[in-house]
Amino acid sequence: MLIEPVIKGVVAKNAHPVGCHEAVKQQIQYVKNAPQIQQGPKRVLILGASSGFGLAARIALTFGGAKADTIGVSFEREPNEKSYGSAGWYNNIFFKKEADKEQRLAINIVGDAFSNDIRDQVIEAIETYFEGEVDLVIYSLAAGIRPKDETGEFWRSAIKPIGDSVTGASIMLEDDSWRETTVPPATLEEEQATLKVMGGEDWESWIDALINSESIADGCKTIAFSYVGPEITHPIYLDGTLGRAKIDLHQTSHSLNLKLANFNGNAYATVCKALVTKASVFIPALSPYMLALYKIMKQKGTHETCVEQMQRLFSTKLYGQKLIPLDGERLLRMDDWELDPETQHHVSELLEVMNKDNFTTIGDYQGFKQEFMQLNGFGLTNVDYHRDIDIDNFIKLTP
Ligand code: NAI
Fold it and tell me: Which strands make up the sheet holding 216-226, listed edge to edge?
């Protein structure tokens, strides 16, 4: 059979398994040829390991010099009667396959990272495969909901401004259309729910659980990913519900840093660049900024994908350095190239003239969409999409 992409709004409804494998292989190839990670961690736990920054971090740490073994937790759709499985499902499978080839351990745990059951499974896996300890914990969850303990109810995040509404455009990848939207301000309940889902509480509870189970190695570090962005994005991001949650995450990094000091370890919130991922295309009114940013950063030669960001993070900032470079708020900045003043000046100029008629030509819409398609295994060079694939061969694979 042939698999054609199915997109609804900004959500990919299917994935191409061969393409997902190719995307993983291309990222591995990139990190193998990049400057290598020195003195990297050997036993890594990644929460949110199947796509975006988490997968990129896993690839960088396994193949980009550190030769790490990894336990990856993710929440992905396995094949069933309605679908052939999500991209992340296949990413887990093919990452493991590639890691196996180089005798690197890759344990995939698929389930809800907010649940106690998954916590227990992870602690057991650390015991079994990592001699009971981890050297690095990466918190890279991008979730929409979090179960309230035992009640069967959920906190649901809402990506909204706080105080005033925000008007901007969202771009529908389904039909390449520009839709003007006005996002109303969040209610207090929505603000609090977003904090519960995307703030620092769950990160802290994971580290507490690992401390309690004596799974933290001497010198263990933990990082969680954040976004700050330029002022132009603040009304929808930093000053909105998601930004509140990220500020909470930054504060959590300080308390975790104190806790990990008992193990000679550290905790850092790591601020990344705006990039196309399953999660980020969901943020209303942010896409025009990303089209302008992609265009300008590519012109300047400073654009990076998730895997490029992660390889640079581990090889030039987090490992092998005498001093980890932090800003005045103890944040590790990987958005340094994005926030370069000249870049932002040109981005603002582009945004002033961008509209529904010209966004595909003056912004980097092609690049934006291509990255999105590739996240789901479509549009990759080296894959013959006209060739029949026997889906049963893929459906029976397990992570
Ligand atoms: P993504 O959607 O590509 O990856 C999210 C990961 O979380 C996936 O592996 C998914 O399976 C996993 N996940 C979601 N809910 C889960 C659950 N309940 N249990 C277990 N696993 C679950 O997202 P992306 O963009 O890589 O986001 C990761 C982090 O990076 C987020 O905190 C995000 O805010 C942050 N970030 C993203 C930026 C971007 O532009 N994409 C920029 C800066 C920070």
Answer: 106-110, 69-74, 43-47, 134-139, 216-226, 266-271, 332-333
Specify the ligand 1 atom closest to the Cα of 290: 40
The DSSP secondary structure of 283-324, one letter per residue, reads STT-HHHHHHHHHHHHHHT----HHHHHHHIIIIIISS-SS-
| Contacting residues for 175 by C-beta, under 8 A, at least 6 apart | none
- Tell me the backbone φ, ψ of residue 150, rounded to 5 degrees: 60, -5
> Tokens 């040109």 identify what position?
346
How far, in Å, from the CA of 49 to the mean position of ligand 1? Answer: 8
Q: Is the CB of 74 under 6 A from ligand 1?
A: yes
The set of residues, in sequence order, having a beta carbon less than 8 Å from that of 324 and lying 6+ positions away, is 266, 268, 317, 318, 332
- Mind listing the pLDDT tens digit for each residue in 300-336? 999 999 999 999 999 999 999 999 999 999 999 999 9
Q: Can you tell me whether residue 244 is helix, strand or coil?
A: helix
The pTM of the full predicted model, rounded to 2 decimals, is 0.98
Match 């893929």 to its residue by tokens. Answer: 394
Question: Cα separation of 239 and 233, whole Å?
Answer: 9
